[in-house]
Structure formats: C-alpha cells, structure tokens
C-alpha cells in the first residue's frame, strides 16, 4: 500500500496507545484501581525477552513501571537473532541459544514453543505464585487457562494477556433485503457457502453483490486452504512422511471450494485486489466495508476499519452488521483452530528475579491493566474477560464463544520434521493442478492424485537433501572441533537444518 496509508495507520496506532497510557494514569490517580504496591528502598531488576523494545514499553512496560516504580526493566530484543541475515532453520534451538546467552527473567513464547519449553524444564510453574497471592484466574478466558494447563501437564507455566481470533461477519441489511435467514453461531464452511449461493450473481463488477469473500483477495487455493485448515487437514503425515491428499476429506474440501467459485457467489478480485492508491480507493476495494459483500471472515480490526471507512468515503452508506462464531469443524463444532495465543509470558526456570517477573506477569494479565487496554483494540482481544465487551456498539461475544482447538496432530515436534523446502516447491505444483481444474482439463480427484504423487517426490528429495546437509554440517563441526583442540583456535557455530515451519 502507499506510504501515506502506512503512515496514517502508524499515527492512528500511536494516538490510541497514547490515549491508553493517559487513561491508565488517570485510573491510578483517581484511585479507581487498587492502591500502588508498597515499594521498598531496594531496587529490583527485570530482564524481559520481547521482539521490539519500543513496542514493549508502549504496550506493557510503561503501565507496569507506573504501578511498580521500584523495578528497572531491560528489554532484550529477539529481533537481534535475525540481523546476521542467516536463515534460521531450527527456530526453537535459536531461541534457546538466545535465552542462554541473554538470560532474560521473563520469556515471551508462542504456544508451540511453550509446550516444548515446559517439557524441557525451561519454565517456572506459576501455580505456587497464584496460590500465594490469591491471584484471581477465574475471569481469565477459560479456554486459555485450559489450553495452557493441558500443554503444561496440568500446571500453569505462563499467561497471555491477549489473544487473536476470527469470526464470521455478515451484512444484516443484505440478508434482510433478499429474505435470507442470517447465519448462526458455530457455522461450518458448508453452511457459509450454501448461504452465499442464495445471493444474486447478476450485475456489473462495480455494483453487484457477492455472497462471500475475503477482505484482501481470494482464489481457489486460498479458499481450499481455509476450509482444510478449519477441519484440521494436513498435506503431510509427519509420522509416516507421506503426502496425504487423495482422501475423501481433502476431496470434500476442494470440491466445496471449487463449487463455490463456479457458482459466481464468491468474490475474486482482478489482479489479486488492491495494490496501491488513495485511502478512498483502498476502502472501495473492501467490498464488505462498502456493503456489497454478504459475509466475510474477520477479526475485531474489521470493526475498526468499518468505523474509519466512513471518514474517507464521500458516498459511504452505513449498514448493520452481525458477528457469529465460526467457521468450525463439523466434527468438533465447539472449538476453533483460528484462535491464537502469540504472546505467552513465562518465567525462566532458573531466574534469580522470579518475584519481579511474577509481578510483571500478574499485572499485565490483571484487571487493572485490562481496564486501561479495554479502550482500544490494539494488541488483540483481552484474555481478562468482562472489559472488552463491545467496540463501536458491536458485541465482541462471538470471539469468546469457542474454545481453541488443542490439535496434537499439528504439534510443533511432529510438524517440525517436514523440511522447509517442501512447502515452497509443493505450492507451485498445487497452483498448477488447480489451474487445470478451473480450466476443466482435470477433475478435482485427478488433480489431488497428481498433487499427492508429485508432492511425495518433492518431499522425499527434500528429506534426502536435509539429511545430506546435516551430515555435512556434522562433518564440518567435527573438523572444527578437531582444529580447535589441536591449538588452531577455530570456533564454528553449527545451525542444524531441522525445519520448524508448521503447515
């Protein structure tokens, strides 16, 4: 997008962050929150692992420092791991090396690393702190606590103040206009696309409506991928290292996507959609925001975009929207694979500053912090429930309605066996085969069979190349150690070629 668009977004975020901090100060000064903790004359130190120092203080650090003014915070940025320009093949090992070198007290990890760090004994359990301080976890999103405990073998080793989720947005006015019953919670992809086909498909490209579409472009591959992801389908079985696409489940997913495209009810933007232009041109390209798309998958920022679009569009026509939980896997309609906890904060197992680390974690996951942050959408949905109930008059209840899917079949350890090189090469094969399907030169079944066969060849070669590279690295490592022991003084850091990319 244009630089103007990026700058406008940045100014908007900074303005909201400033307001949030000011509100936090007002809350504390007005005595609306708990009284500041009694501080001792002894200053405490806290080293926090985070991806960016500036954003850390905007989002967490400044508010925490006002509440605990006896703690000196140092941020060690994980961005430093990428500055050498080298490709990190084993992200988990690189993270452990970073932790060992920097020794942060508070660790920021994702859900996959969290589970492995727990099993490797790298994190300190929080249950004793929670019991000691009588810390209330009852109003934290129950699904989050459940997930963290399951990944922690029944104990809590971390907490996440925010999470990211998706839901189905729909245009109430369009459903009323065409006499179509609106979608309901726990909706499946089959139901979404069946509803989409009930909307008219006539009219020119500048005025017609669409039953369904994505906010930033859509093609057959994208839609099939979204359906298969919701239903937990994997292109590769990491236990057998076999490409598995020629199955009934995959056929259903691709046929569902293909039939939806054939019906003309799904929006397919020309040339991939918006690539640059004015703010007015950007919002015109967002058909759901313009009232020309009946349904789309979105997050809370969709509400923010809807609010802001009226400021840039001269002929903007307001419309009512509804939000329902979904899409879901019909085999497990109470859960969602589209709920993510990206910032889980934990305490390093051997941290000498555990009490200060816990003070930080309990503060950013507490009610006082939630009261301040509930005024904006910045940072995601609040895990501490009861504060971010609505935005611009629209309820956020749908984002809390489902539980995150604890999908062990797609765990970090299992999926990390698949080489990175496989995905890049397989994508080209997939696009080629789907193009043949759209051109009516192949059936979905024939395309999937070809994708499976060609994909297996690619996977086998990627595994072979990975093993050869690892063998070479081991040889180089042994040679380096030999040189070092003989007085050469040579030290070489070897990065294993194990993949960590998940499907």
UniProtKB/TrEMBL annotation:
Asked whether the UniProt record includes Repeat among its keywords, one would answer no
The domain of life is Bacteria
- Record keywords: Coiled coil included? yes
Coiled-coil blocks: 427-454
Location(s) in or outside the cell: Cell envelope
- Give one Pfam hit by family name: SBP_bac_1
**Which keywords has UniProt assigned to this entry?**
Coiled coil, Signal, Transport
Entry GO CC:
cell envelope
UniProt feature, compositional bias: Basic and acidic residues: 461-475
Give the span(s) annotated as Disordered: 459-503
Family affiliation: Belongs to the bacterial solute-binding protein 1 family.
Name used for this protein in its record: Extracellular solute-binding protein
């Amino acid at each position: 997008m244009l630089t103007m668009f990026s700058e406008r977004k940045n100014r908007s975020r900074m303005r909201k962050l400033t307001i949030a901090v000011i509100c936090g100060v007002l809350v504390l000064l007005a005595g609306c929150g708990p009284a500041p903790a009694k501080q001792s004359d002894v200053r405490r130190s806290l080293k926090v692992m985070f991806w960016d120092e500036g954003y850390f203080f905007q989002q967490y650090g400044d508010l925490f420092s006002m509440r605990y003014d006896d703690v000196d915070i140092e941020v060690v940025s994980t961005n430093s791991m990428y500055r050498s320009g080298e490709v990190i093949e084993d992200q988990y090992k690189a993270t452990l090396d970073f932790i060992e070198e920097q020794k942060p007290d508070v660790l920021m990890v994702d859900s996959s690393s969290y589970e492995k760090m727990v099993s490797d004994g790298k994190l300190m359990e929080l249950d004793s702190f929670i019991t000691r301080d009588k810390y209330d976890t009852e109003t934290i999103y129950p699904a989050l606590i459940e997930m963290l405990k399951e990944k922690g073998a029944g104990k809590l080793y971390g907490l996440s103040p925010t999470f990211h989720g998706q839901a189905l947005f729909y245009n109430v006015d369009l459903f009323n206009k065409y006499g179509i019953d609106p979608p309901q919670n726990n909706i499946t992809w089959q139901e979404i696309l069946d509803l989409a086909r009930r909307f008219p498909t006539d009219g020119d490209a500048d005025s017609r409506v669409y039953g369904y579409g994505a906010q930033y472009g859509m093609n057959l591959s994208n839609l099939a991928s979204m359906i298969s992801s919701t239903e937990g389908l994997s292109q590769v079985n990491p236990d057998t290292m076999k490409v598995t696409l020629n199955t009934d489940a995959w056929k259903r997913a691709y046929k569902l996507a293909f039939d939806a495209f054939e019906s003309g009810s799904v929006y397919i933007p020309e040339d991939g959609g918006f690539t640059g232009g004015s703010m007015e041109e950007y919002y015109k390209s967002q058909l759901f925001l313009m009232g020309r798309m009946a349904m789309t998958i979105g997050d809370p920022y969709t509400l923010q975009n809807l609010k802001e679009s009226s400021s840039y569009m001269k002929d903007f026509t307001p419309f009512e929207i509804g939000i329902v939980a979904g899409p879901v896997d019909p085999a497990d309609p109470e859960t969602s694979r589209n709920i993510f906890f990206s910032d889980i904060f934990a305490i390093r197992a051997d941290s000498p500053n555990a009490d200060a680390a816990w003070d930080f974690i309990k503060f950013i996951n507490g009610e006082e912090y939630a009261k301040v942050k509930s005024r904006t959408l910045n940072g995601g949905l609040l895990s501490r429930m009861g504060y971010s109930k609505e935005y611009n008059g629209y309820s956020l209840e749908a984002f809390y309605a489902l539980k995150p899917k604890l999908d062990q079949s797609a765990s970090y350890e299992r999926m990390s066996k698949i080489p990175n090189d496989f995905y890049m090469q397989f994508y080209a094969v997939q696009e080629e085969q789907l193009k043949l399907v759209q051109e009516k030169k192949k059936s979905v079944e024939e395309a999937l069979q070809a994708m499976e066969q060609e994909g297996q060849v690619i996977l086998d070669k990627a595994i072979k190349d990975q093993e050869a590279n690892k063998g070479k690295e081991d040889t180089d490592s042994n040679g380096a150690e030999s040189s070092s022991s003989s007085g050469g003084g040579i030290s070489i850091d070897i990065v294993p070629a194990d993949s960590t990319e998940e499907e």
